[in-house]
Specification:
The complex is a heterotrimer. Chain A contains eleven helices and twelve strands. By secondary structure, chain A is an alpha/beta fold. Chain A has a five-stranded mixed β-sheet. Chain A has a five-stranded mixed β-sheet with strand order 8-7-9-5-10, sandwiched between helices. In chain A, strand 1, helix 2 and strand 2 (53-58) form a beta-alpha-beta unit. The radius of gyration of chain A is 22 Å and the shape is globular. Chain B has helices spanning 3-40, 46-50, 63-94, 99-113, 116-130, 137-161, 165-173, 178-206, 210-213, 235-244, 253-285; strands at residues 53-54, 59-60. By secondary structure, chain B is mainly α. The termini of chain B are far apart. Chain B is globular and about 70 Å long. By secondary structure, chain C is mainly α. Chain C folds into two domains: 3-39; 48-295, MetI-like fold. Helix content of chain C is 76%, strand content 1%. Chain C has helices at 3-21, 23-39, 42-45, 48-53, 70-101, 104-119, 122-141, 149-173, 177-185, 190-201, 203-219, 222-227, 245-252, 261-295, and strands spanning 57-58, 66-67. In chain C, a hairpin with a 7-residue loop joins strand 1 (57-58) and strand 2 (66-67). In chain C, helix 5 runs parallel beside helix 8, helix 5 crosses helix 11 (203-219) and helix 7 packs across helix 8. The longest helix of chain C has 35 residues, at 261-295. Chain C is globular. Chains in contact: A-B, A-C, B-C.
Amino acid sequence: MKKIALIALASLTLLGGLLLGAKMVQIKGSDTMVNLVQILAEEYMGKNPGAPIAVLGGGSGTGITGLINQTCDIANTSREWKPKEIDQAWEKGVTPRNFVVAVDGLSIVVNEKNPVEQLTMAQVGAMYRGEIKNWKAVSEFQKPVSLYGRQSNSGTYVFMQEFVLGNKNYSTDMKEMNGNAQIIEGIIQDEGAVGYVGVGYLYDETHHVRKGLKVVKISKEPGGTGYVPTDKAAVDSGSYPIARPLYMSTNGKPKGVAAEFLQWIVGPEGQAVVEREGFFAVGEGKYKAANDKNFK
Amino acid sequence: MKPAARKKIVQVIGFLALRTAMVLVVAVLLLFLYDIGSKGHGAITWEFLSKAPRKGMTAGGIFPAIFGTFLVTVITALLSVPLGMSAAIYLNEYARQTRLTRLIRLSIRNLSGVPSIVYGLFGVILFVNVMRFGTSVLSAGLTLGLMTLPWTITASEEALKTVPNSYREGALALGATKWQSIRTNVLPYAVPGMLTGTVLGLARAAGETAPILFTGAAFFLPFLPRSLSDQFMALPYHLYIMATQHHAILQVRPLAYGTALVLIVFVLGMNMTAVILRYRLRRKQR
Amino acid sequence: MTKRRRDVQEAAIRAFFFTCGILAVLVLLGIFLTLVATSFPAFRQIKLSEFFLSTQWDPTSPEKAEYGLLSMIASTLMVTAGALILAVPIGIGVAAYLSDVAHWRVREVLKPVIEILAGIPSVVVGFLGIVLFGPAIAKVFHVGNGLNALNGSILLAVMALPTIISISEDSLNAVPRAYSEASLALGASRWQTLVRVKLPAGLSGIIAAVMLGMGRAIGETMTVLMATGNARSFPHGFLTAVRTMTANVAIELGEVPYDTTHYYALFAIGLVLFVMTFAVNLVADVVLHKYQEREQ
């Protein structure tokens, strides 16, 4: 009995006495970005050993909450902050600064057995609002629409809601999956499925579009030209209507390891990784200018 | 048909139905174990068990999760075992059959029925916020400690009950105080049984996800937790993420199976250790 | 040591153990009060009638934030009912088998088997729901996706079975031998004795077992989070995706900033869960208590 008490005391002391070491940079947020940022962190840490960076997911909402509650240093978000969230941050003394680290073409995917090739923004919105319930409304495919989406903590969910659903409620029949990958898994097995995922999730390890998926062309107007999100020119020019910047936000001006990491990401090495993972680089335009301003 | 024959036929059919139920349950368990074993063992390599994850967790190992689960279970034990044992000592050695005692027992039974996510909610308020431990292995361990408390109390009480009253009376007759009699004549015989029982509760804690979701578990950390206030990786949470939120869940499915296998071996290993210890103890006591 | 000092020491030791003893009551009370205190602010913004009677849960809606719990209450009750439909007959059957039919050697093997089943972590069961039962259900019932209420019910049945089996078996074993012997002496077969004498005699224990199994099913989180598809709609059939109360808390807690209505509302759900499981456990307790009294 005494022996056990001694062992317990010893382990407790050992645990409590461990040194904290270098402060770890905590990054939380977007599931769309979590893989990308993890790979960025791994490569950066490979070149800069001793720079501890921890990347967690949870969804854009989780990242924003983390920054507001000051439980993380950087928030990954695949959407903009809502005015309400900015207010909450200011109330708690947090001043968010956003850096665009990549550009995403939000992709609408269906099962490969689905004959549909192109949809308009309006049609996609109608499906996700629950107004179109069967594929026969837009094609000869006679199957009920099986909706796959994310949960409310997802920036992608919010972005879709704002830009494609016109800020209206989602259909409550939408299966709310835990992440992009689960949506893909569902669509591959479900013939009537439709889902939305970040463009980086379309590819398998060999950088081809995954077997079982079909990426739908999206047009702004009925009868207009449809584009796929894998078309970089279409995304850059704005012809692909559901493109969005991917952000990393800090509380105020970034400092220390966080600042160096962010600088590296928007630099040539980081952007090469971004492109390799299937997303699009920030480019030289307005995003770069905004970033430069925010670093000061 | 003669009533006797009918009775016999009904019995045969009835017992067959019962046997079928039993076979069904065993079959389900075997199915589970076979599925995880067969699809998971391929992932088990020395690298898998001893190294950290690499390449966005599509390669490498799950050692940080194993370590994290081990660490948080130790903290759970440090809270739950002494408190549970002490509570059991009170209930079995000191308490009389009053309404308060019945209330205590009612509370214990109800605590074991509280949903694990509710413990998580409580842990967020009490440990993460009010006590300011933040999301950390400490908060998670304490939350799990509370959750395991009903188990350790019940198991410890059962161990205490097996000590014959004559032991206590003998010491008292020789002039010992109550505490002395407990310390010298009851505890040495009960403690091994108490610890054995609590290991079962700790095995359950090791496999729980909901209480650690918001109190300290993390998906990917570059380092092992180096202090009590660090976050940690954990086997059950790792499995959850690999199965649902990973960016390439189909590709890492074999790794998920491997994680499930390690988790099951960890938990069932603890269970079996406790059962074997209990068996050995019972034999010794006879 | 003087007698006086020894008495003081004894009293102190007793006080210490007493404090540990009432710890269980304090923790239970603490959980209840914390839930009440943290959910109370929610009802400044949310009407009670909306919370319990509305089927729309959409706290992040850009149109109108809604906090209707009814769909999720229905989903929880639905998967629980499904689980019990499966687990009660099978569980009582196995318990009867163990107490009345099995050879003692078989029993020695089976009891550890059931303990092993009880020891499988809920996340592993949920995982098997995704990889094993999901595709099977999709194939057998010709639905696109096997993540639905049926999947959840099957998994919850598996988790509730060990509880139901072991407590029912205890109850059947506790039926006085005199009852069975009298029945057999009167010419009844073993089956008739089991069904017409033992089961009714042990009924209160069996009811308690079922209630405890039900409590387990209501409170289960990870399994349903992974396997039921998480759609927010009011359930329409076992083959549709549903979202239970426990899953909803797990999904949304990570993304809510502290001290917002949404945050308080999640604690309100926690309170509802606490009350439900408390009530179920209380009934089981009362039933068991009456049963024990009768035996004395």
